[in-house]
Design brief:
This protein has 291 residues and is an alpha+beta fold. It folds into 2 domains: 117 residues, D-amino Acid Aminotransferase, Chain A, domain 1 (2-Layer Sandwich), CATH 3.30.470; 155 residues, D-amino Acid Aminotransferase, Chain A, domain 2 (Alpha-Beta Barrel), CATH 3.20.10.10. The protein is built from 7 helices and 15 strands. Strands 7, 8, 9, 10, 11, 12, 13, 14 and 15 form a 9-stranded mixed beta sheet that branches. A hairpin with a 2-residue loop joins β10 and β11. α6 crosses α7. The model has no long low-confidence stretch (mean pLDDT 97).
């Protein structure tokens, strides 16, 4: 049975319980983060916690994040995942349990902090090399998508709509612009330039997205941050998603039409290799520091 973390204690998952008055349960009043680990080494945990802190400040949830690094490592250890090729820690913080009101509790309450760890895997090479399909669906999320809240109903409905169309993923469209995926950032390649939507209140500033931009510029890969009109996808030579557990995920078909020649393209492959090289460098640096 997996070990989870709840409000300062580690316990078997079956023993974890949360008040039915918790505002996360009743109102979606909370935030979450998912941090990947590679063979027991966290990847960009500092960036995930920085984004979490920004969200806590915006939601005005008073919580000291200083112990969260140790908690992440402890969960990986207690669940026997230190040697796993890929694992992750999911963590969410809600405002806490209080009488249900549409305003904040008048008497301060203690936030609820819950986290668990589990293994995950990258698609097998033969699957990844074939690429994936996506369908465009309307973006009906709120106007502060840059805050990573647990209110994911619009994302879930969008993803299901794409699945109902027989697609593997969803591309959210707002005002004719391909904003991002239902749970990943979206990119399109035009010529040799990889394009992704700029950071605004309408997209999540993905950690993987930011690292890809940084690494691509360092490697001399042309990248651009600008809105992508849906009509432009007809002229894209490649498309892909980026995300914590998706890494770089190639898209070879959108709305039943092939992208480019319908195969995983060279820019996508190069960016995937660049990202995985960053992961390997992070692991080696961590191992050297620990030795």
């Amino acid at each position: 049975m997996s070990t989870v973390y709840l409000n300062g204690a580690y316990m078997p998952k079956a023993q974890a319980s949360i008040s039915p008055d918790d505002r996360g349960f009743l109102l979606g009043d909370g935030l979450y983060e998912v941090t990947p680990f590679y063979q027991g080494v966290p990847f960009a945990l500092d960036l995930h916690l920085k984004r979490l802190l920004k969200g806590l400040c915006y939601l005005r949830i008073d919580y000291d994040v200083s112990g969260l690094v140790a908690m992440h490592h402890e969960l990986i250890s207690r669940n026997g995942l230190a040697g796993a090729e890929r694992s992750m820690v999911y963590m969410q913080i809600t405002r806490g349990a209080a009488p249900r009101t549409h305003y904040f509790p008048e008497i301060p309450v203690t936030p609820t902090v819950y986290a668990f760890a589990k293994e995950w895997s990258r698609p097998a090479d033969e699957v990844w090399n074939l690429g994936f399909s996506a369908a465009t669906v309307p973006d009906r999320r709120w106007s502060r998508v840059d805050i990573k809240t647990i209110c994911l109903l619009p994302n879930a409905l969008a993803f299901q709509a794409a699945k109902d169309k027989g697609a593997d993923d969803a591309i959210l469209v707002r005002d004719g612009v391909a904003i991002e995926g239902a749970h990943q950032n979206f990119w399109a390649v035009f010529g040799d330039t990889a394009v992704t939507h700029p950071v605004t209140g309408h997209i999540l500033p993905g950690i993987t997205r930011g690292i890809l931009l940084e690494e691509a510029r360092e490697a001399g890969v042309s990248v651009e941050e600008r809105p992508i009109q849906v009509e432009e996808l007809e002229f894209a030579t490649e498309c892909f998603f980026s995300g914590t557990t998706g890494e770089v995920r190639p898209v070879v078909e959108v709305d039943g039409r092939p992208i480019g020649d319908g195969t995983v393209g060279p820019v996508t492959r190069r960016l995937s290799d660049i990202f995985l090289a960053r992961v390997e460098a992070t692991k080696k640096a961590e191992w050297v520091a620990a030795s």
